[in-house]
Amino acid sequence: MRALTLTAAALLIAAAAVPAQAATAAAPASPEPPHVYADPGQRPAHGKTGLAPAGGGGLESRILPIVHNCGPSLRIRAQEMTAAQLAATCASLANQDAYFHNVVKDSGPVADDHNTTLEVDVFNSSADYKNYARKIYGIDTNNGGMYLEGDPSRPGNQPRFICYERTDVSPGWQIWNLNHEYTHYLDGRYDLYGDFGDSQTTPTVWWGEGIAEYVSYSYRGIPYSKALAEAGKHTYALRTLFDTTYENSDVNRTYNWGYLAARYMVEEHPADVATVLGHYRTGNWAAARAFLTSLDYESDWNAWLTAVATTA
To answer: What element of type H or E holds 77?
Structure first.
């Protein structure tokens, strides 16, 4: 998920071999904003950073003493990570760049975007995340991590993905939601003009959450079994998914069906995706919306759903 100026969104996973994301139900979190999805540790979330500024009065440097530069555009701050874990995380993210750009076919950052570096702040556990992240960053912590985009139009703005490690999932160590959320960072920089609030002028969740799921799973070569199982149910028309917002959907529609919609469009109608992204990249949300709502692929969409469901 992307975030507003001073808002948050979080979402998938890096380890020595970057494993799969879980997909469990989420429940609304506390008051801000109304489109928050939270879950006991598996789904990312949006949320405002209305409390402490980044740094938390020096607490950040004490709790996250490890500072590791993957390169000029990516820095990791961690509570406790080994050299091998740092190297694996850097490699996972660095290798994802080329994959993402090949999918979206961008020609560089959108205009007025100064989010040139990403900081990944890694707590040692979900418990540490819940204990410290609110104090340091002023965020809600009833979720699987948050992406704080800040104001990308401001030079020197520092976007952050605030996350935590898990050791209770295969293959034994993961930074939860890493690859999904890194896709949001890339998507915000190369596909979506302005900040999260700008991109919500019209319904864009089908793309934002869908492409984050699609890139994360396909990049890592992991079948998205839950989404493929959903495909066989034919629950949603494609046109309905183009109307998805955080307010009118649940986790299943947002993530599983977002993945299916994004995958279908990217793989079956790349020229249409290029048209839509051309509008998104200039902030012409109304033109993108008009184009999407003019499409009628329902017969082909349903045949495609049947086909991918049988290969699950």
So the answer is: strand 74-78
- Report which of 253, 266, 245, 249 is spatially closest to residue 226, judged by C-alpha positions: 253
CB 291 within 8 A of CB 275: yes
- Which tens digit of pLDDT belongs to each residue from 13-37? 333 333 333 332 333 332 222 223 3
Cβ atoms of residues 46 and 200 within 8 Å: no
In terms of Cβ atoms closer than 10 Å to its own Cβ (0-12, 13-18, 19+), residue 245 is middle
Global confidence as pTM: 0.83
Neighbours of 124 (CB within 10 A): 17
* Helix 257-268 × helix 298-310 angle, to 10°: 110
Q: Which amino acid is at 245?
A: T
What band does 57 get if pLDDT is binned at 50, 70 and 90? low
Pairing of strands 174-175, 160-166: antiparallel
Q: Return the active site residues.
A: 181
pLDDT digits (tens, 9 = 90+) for 296-305: 999 999 999 9
Return d(Cα 172, Cα 154) in angstroms, integer: 39
Cα–Cα nearest to 212, from 244, 183, 186: 183
Got the DSSP string for 42-65? Answer: SS-B-EE--SSPTTGGGHHHHH--
DSSP state of 75: E
Distance in angstroms (rounded) separating the CA atoms of residues 25 and 140: 18
Distance CA(35)–CA(22), nearest Å, equals 20
